[in-house]
């Protein structure tokens, strides 16, 4: 089948609306580089559309009714939104699910040290990264430091034009003969991804009559003094900190035609943003709509804030109770009768690396929303593998709404593979299929998407939320 091209189908108004949406999207991913920053921004956006926190609704004692809008935050790193529909919850929901964590470098618990008059923060990379891509680029430090008294210090250093930035050093080409002979996976080792944070020593002039006191690690000492003076942070406060190292600077329009977006964290915040926009845009629904934006997908969806956590089930149980049912069976029926789009990015066909793709089953930038029947690797290992009946239903929903979409796999058989949260949600017996935006440079510090695909994703997600269900 000949693939459709989104740009060729747009009217002037649609092209203008596409640019407007992507301007908002660029601002979102520029300001939201961590899970906590995403959740804070999403709460602010949701409350403007009338969403109320679940805990507040529980305290009020009011029963759920159609049109109610609820959100629930999990440890400030994951969030779920619900727009209550006409039908009871036991008849299921239309669910959009994406993740808001992205590959990065995390600061270790005892990170600060000095070597040869250079101060470093020790890191441990998070998620699947090509380590050599993270050297010699400007980096920013985002996150929180929680002090023993419960005080939280929020940091975002390296984004303002007057902020300092940080970096990982690389070996100069003049001395890199042996390095260049190594495999790409070994060119930069994980323990070599420590960021440079200082080079100036602390100089303390002695008072009259006192002997000069020399610091053992004077550069580290000045960094500690700066942290205490400017942020109120002591060295031991790193023990209770969540600090992430991410590329510094905003996302940008790319290409002479400004048709693309280049920026950090588009896996999977492009699907998180488009799912959120669809959720906020769709008001009255027949079937309850749900948007799940979770953490930890890049490391297996584990932990209390990942999709394998029972938090999602617990929230559904609370909603069923608020609805006035209070039955565990109703919770199970709600989950089993739901349909879901697992909103995660897809590998865009890259002509520069064409040998890794199978053209007629690849996704293309500017080709619209991408559906993947399965992900996994090799013999579909670890895949959800959506059934034919559900795919036929989705095709009709998209065609009826005139959404341009494509169906693709993740590269050639036996070349590699990947996964999403689809298989986790499918365990409830619900119908799930992967649906997202094609991305170039996936998992690199700067990833690329087509503005048209971002726009079509919102349109496709809206059509799904408005659908009556199977």
CATH level 3 topology of the largest domain: Aminopeptidase
Q: If strands are numbered along the chain, what order do they take across the biggest sheet?
A: 1-2-3-13-4-14-20-16-18
Any idea how many domains? 2
Helix content: 25-40%
Annotation field: number of helices: 12
N/C terminus separation: 26 Å
Can you tell me the CATH superfamily of the largest domain? Zn peptidases
- Which CATH class of the largest domain is shown? Alpha Beta
User: What is the architecture of the largest domain at the second tier of CATH?
Assistant: 3-Layer(aba) Sandwich
Task: Describe the fold and architecture.
By secondary structure, the protein is of the alpha/beta class. It has two domains: 6-102 and 264-466, Aminopeptidase (3-Layer(aba) Sandwich), CATH 3.40.630; 104-247, Roll (Aminopeptidase i, Domain 2). 29% of the residues lie in helices and 23% in strands. It contains twelve helices and 22 strands. The protein has a nine-stranded mixed β-sheet, sandwiched between helices. A six-stranded antiparallel β-sheet has the order 8-7-10-5-6-9. A three-stranded antiparallel β-sheet has the order 11-12-22. β5 and β6 (118-126) form a beta hairpin. It is globular and about 85 Å long. The mean pLDDT is 94.
């Amino acid at each position: 089948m000949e693939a459709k091209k989104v740009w060729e189908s747009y009217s002037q108004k649609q092209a203008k609306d596409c640019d407007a949406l992507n301007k908002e999207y660029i601002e979102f991913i520029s300001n939201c580089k961590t899970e906590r920053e995403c959740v804070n921004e999403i709460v602010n956006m949701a409350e403007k559309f009338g969403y109320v926190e679940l805990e507040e609704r529980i305290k009020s004692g009011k029963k759920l009714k159609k049109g109610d809008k609820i959100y629930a935050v999990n440890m400030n790193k994951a969030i779920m939104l619900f727009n209550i529909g006409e039908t009871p919850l036991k008849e299921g929901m239309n669910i959009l699910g994406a993740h808001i964590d992205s590959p990065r470098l995390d600061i270790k618990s005892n990170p600060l040290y000095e070597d040869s008059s250079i101060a470093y923060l020790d890191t441990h990379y998070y998620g699947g990264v090509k380590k050599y891509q993270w050297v010699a680029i400007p980096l920013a430090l985002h996150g929180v430091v929680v002090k023993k008294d419960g005080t939280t210090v929020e940091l975002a250093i390296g984004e303002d034009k007057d902020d300092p930035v940080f970096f990982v050093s690389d070996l100069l080409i003049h001395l890199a003969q042996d390095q260049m002979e190594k495999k790409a996976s070994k060119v930069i080792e994980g323990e070599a991804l420590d960021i440079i944070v200082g080079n100036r020593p602390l100089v303390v002039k002695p008072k009259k009559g006192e002997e000069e006191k020399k610091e053992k690690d004077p550069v580290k000492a000045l960094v500690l003094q700066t942290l205490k003076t400017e942020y109120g942070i002591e060295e031991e406060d790193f023990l209770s900190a969540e600090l992430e190292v991410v590329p510094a600077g905003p996302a940008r329009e790319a290409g002479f035609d400004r048709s693309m977006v280049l920026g950090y964290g588009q896996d999977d915040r492009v699907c998180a943003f488009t799912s959120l926009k669809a959720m906020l845009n769709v008001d009255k629904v027949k079937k309850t709509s749900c948007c799940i934006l979770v953490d930890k997908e890049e490391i297996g969806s584990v932990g209390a804030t990942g999709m394998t956590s029972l938090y999602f089930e617990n929230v559904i149980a609370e909603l069923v109770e608020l609805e006035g049912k209070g039955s565990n069976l109703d919770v199970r029926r709600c989950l089993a009768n739901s349909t879901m789009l697992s909103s995660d990015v897809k590998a865009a066909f890259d002509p520069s690396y064409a040998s890794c793709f199978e053209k007629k089953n690849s996704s293309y930038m500017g080709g619209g929303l991408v559906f993947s029947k399965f992900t996994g690797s090799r013999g579909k290992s670890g895949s959800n593998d959506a059934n034919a009946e559900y795919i036929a239903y989705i095709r009709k929903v998209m065609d009826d709404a005139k959404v341009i979409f494509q169906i693709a796999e993740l590269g050639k058989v036996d070349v590699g593979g990947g996964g999403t949260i689809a298989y986790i949600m499918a365990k409830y017996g619900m119908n799930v299929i992967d649906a997202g935006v094609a991305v170039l440079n996936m998992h690199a510090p700067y990833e690329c998407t087509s503005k048209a695909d971002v726009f079509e994703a919102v349109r496709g997600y809206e059509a799904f939320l408005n659908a009556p269900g199977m």
